[in-house]
Amino acid sequence: MNLRGWLIQLYPRAWRERYGDEFEILLQECLHSPLDIFDIMLGALDAHLEFPYDLNWRVMNMINKLRTSILVVFAAYIGFIVGGMSLYGLADDSPMADLMKTQTNIPLLASWITIEVGAIIALLAVVIGGLPIAWIAIRYALTSSRSDLRYLLIPVFAFLALIFYAGFVASIGLGKIQIPGVLPVVSHDNFPIGNRLLIGGGMLIFILGAIASTIAVWKIVANANAEENSLHIFNRAEPIKTYNHAFRFSLVTSAAMLLMLIATIAWGWFSYSAMPEVFSENWGLLLTNTASSFVVIVTVMVLSTAAAFWGIVRGYSVRNVAL
Amino acid sequence: MNLTDFGRFSDPALLILASLANGPKHGYSMMIDIEIMTGVRLGPGTLYGALARLENSGLIKSMPAKDRRRPYRLTVTGAAALREQLSLLQKLASTGLKRLAAP
Description:
The complex is a heterodimer. By secondary structure, chain A is an all-alpha fold. Chain A has 10 helices and 4 strands. Chain A folds into 3 domains: 3-50; 57-144 and 226-323, no CATH class; 147-224. In chain A, the strands form 2 sheets. A two-stranded antiparallel sheet of chain A has the order 1-2. In chain A, helix 4 (55-92) runs antiparallel to helix 8 (193-223) and helix 4 packs parallel to helix 9. In chain A, 33% of the residues are buried. Chain B is built from 4 helices and 2 strands, in the order αααββα. Chain B is elongated and about 60 Å long. Chain B has a single domain (3-101), classed as Arc Repressor Mutant, subunit A, CATH 1.10.10. Helices cover 60% and strands 6% of the residues of chain B. The interface between A and B is medium-sized, with 36 and 22 residues.
């Protein structure tokens, strides 16, 4: 961290969230002497003692708190998606998929359908709740902060990288590209290490892309002006309070995540009851031990759900903040 | 609104109000303008300490940022407060000069 960054860090977080960006630009132009450094230190001390000055600042702090809570739920949701996609890969490439297709094991099928319904509810809640906030944040990034524009490109690059890799794997599958040690078509009994690495690479790109995109979205939303909380849509007389709106849908997302977690554990239990031998064998996209893979997936889901509810509890007290 | 409520930031606050009297400015522009206008160079910490208080009191208002520089403008209340303070100073200056001129 350079001197400017260090000096800004001296200020309280709430102050930095409001003035940090413009103050850094000012320091780029006018930080000339030790007297300036001393003046900034005094200013930081004053901000620690006096800031927030009155109700308006407290409202801003509450909005920042609400926004961070929403972002925590969003990041937790992305973590849950990674776990959910891994569960889909495990189930789809194992005898459990055939068992579900026969539709004879009703509890197993019902738990799987519950997971799918929960996934749709959570996705809709994220999209409906997040669109107004995303619109305001992207508009702010496009009009006010050029440095934020690079963050907008990260989800696009992550998506393109995944598409490119999928095309590469498809070309191998179609025999258009040949790599030593990698077969165009694999089976459970003939799954060479080259193919495992190929699929593992795809999973790695997906996970890294999800993490990078989540950080980018976090940065864009967190950098947006918290005062711009209202959005007029569909000619409604009353504007949408974007953060309050997003928080309500965060509750839905978190509830859907809990539902999916319970359904996943139930699905694992019904699967184990029907085919206990599968859990001691190697299945899934990477042919890893089924029981171990399932435990890792459930752990990711538990941690993600816990993080989402932590975000909800954190933001609940300020959910009705108005600006 | 009395600027003396700002404590040690009351003088810088008056300078900022005077700087914004002829149009919106961002932090660095205010700093330069004040230095040209009065010969006083406000430190960055002092500038933003006063600026935050003025904004909080509704005497100035922030505008949408451009390239991360956020301009501020005088509000109607801010213009009234500036006028009141300058009238007081004018009265003080006039009285002081008259007394100095008196034999």
